[in-house]
């Protein structure tokens, strides 16, 4: 088995060996890359030293509360943030990446407010006097809104009218099913026509008519007036509207 594997490997073509020229070229490229890396390291180290000096000068200057750097790359901004953090300063980056993004420093005793940071993030310059005016206007608007809300609250009714007049109307509510509708009649106004309908029988009508005759006869002052009363009663009986209505019915 080993002999077979050895014969197979021996029959395979060996990879071509690099010539002296190619080996020299590879070594030159590697050396150039190392030089570039060393140059980049020296450049960053020099930049760090430069930032340390500028930040140190900023700290010593009692007239400056904040310091704005020129736009720089992300790697350089990271170095500035590191140096500022070691020096005990507050630092933020603002602007658009790869365009105009920069670093701004503040001394600890003059740390920026949220409104100031928001202004820089919007690309605006921070004006303390303008900020005070805006804060005062905001406070006035809030007070005005509170006063308006209190006024509206006073104008609103204390409660439902049913609660207010509960002692008069009671707790029961009337539904549509409980309500009784009265149909208007043109001849009798808004009184239901069923309430005016004569529901007596003919016998009851005749009995009531006779009773009225006897009553009118009995109250006469004398026989003559009584006779006249009877005559008049007969006339009224013949033309009694209730009798005619009942008879017709």
Describe the structure in your own words.
A three-stranded antiparallel beta sheet has the order 1-3-2, covered by helices on one side. The chain has 249 residues and is mainly α. The longest helix has 41 residues, at 20-60. It contains eleven helices and three strands; from the N terminus they run ααβαββαααααααα. The model is unreliable at 223-249 (pLDDT under 50).
Notable traits:
R3H_dom_sf; 249 residues; mainly alpha; three-stranded antiparallel sheet
Uncertain parts: 223-249
Largest sheet features: 3 strands, antiparallel
Mean pLDDT: 76
CA-based shape? elongated
How big a fraction of the residues is strand?
A: 5-15%
Secondary-structure element series: HHEHEEHHHHHHHH
The count of β-strands is: 3
Cα-atom radius of gyration? 57 Å
Task: Report the total helices.
Answer: 11
Strand order of the largest sheet: 1-3-2
Structural class, please? mainly alpha
Distance separating the two termini: 136 Å
Helix content: 55-70%
Q: What topology does this entry show?
A:
Elements: H1 2-11, H2 20-60, E1 66-68, H3 74-86, E2 90-94, E3 102-106, H4 114-121, H5 128-155, H6 161-164, H7 166-169, H8 193-196, H9 202-218, H10 223-238, H11 241-248
Antiparallel strand pairs: 1-3, 2-3
